[in-house]
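Reply to dn_fold:

You asked what the input looked like. This is it:
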Amino acid sequence: MRTIVTYFQLAGEFTNPYKFVTGAILSGLTAFAVALILVLLLRKYMLVPRSHKLLKFLAYAYFVALPLIAGFFGLKWGFFHSLRKDIREHTDVYAAHVPPLFSEQAPGAVDSLFGGHAGVSSLSTHQLIDTAAVVIYNVYGSTLEQQLSATQGVKGKLASMLLHISKNKNIAAMMHKAVYNLLHDKLGLSDGASNEVVHASLRKLLNGNLFVNIAVVQVDQFLKGLQRGILYTFLLILAVPLIEVGYAHYRYRHRRQPAV
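and this is what came back:
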């Protein structure tokens, strides 16, 4: 829940938080209702006779615990789902807080790539964009570090969050690919494009909202990972009663079988 509170406070500085809070509540209530209906429909299977009073109590506890657990995890999953949707819908709001450092440093890094490395001339368009993606993502990370050290308040918190996400090795690996896809889609260049055309197109693209586009993709990937983690955790917890009920059925059938 601390993670939810942190993102709630940060996102609330930029947009109205009640929209994604409402989405979280609806998701939680839906998960609770579905779980409650399922345990009621499957009550005969869940209440198979047990050999111990504690296990009998546990079987009845499922009717309360499972819907509550489903509602809790549904609330968390729905919060991050609604937050991802809100970020995509309000990209322009977040773009207003983009630090100018990126627009100042990224073109220079791209110019250095194309002007200072002889090996670049032998690369294909695909390889050029891939190399430029690495350079741009490195500038993106250094910009966040400078922004964090130079600013306080909301912008500092936002830079801190993005920088923390970028330090994650899995996210960084995905982001290199995501930045390449972002450049490839926005540039729209064919495989036979010359270095000069790629260079000029990149320079033009860097003058737009590329920084915030990278940030949005990065946050979206991170929140999607949190959603998967929530779902996997819920499924692991759900496996405990499923195994217990299955074992109870096995024991009950075994006891009823006549001795040979």
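The chain has eleven helices and no strands.
Hope that clears it up.
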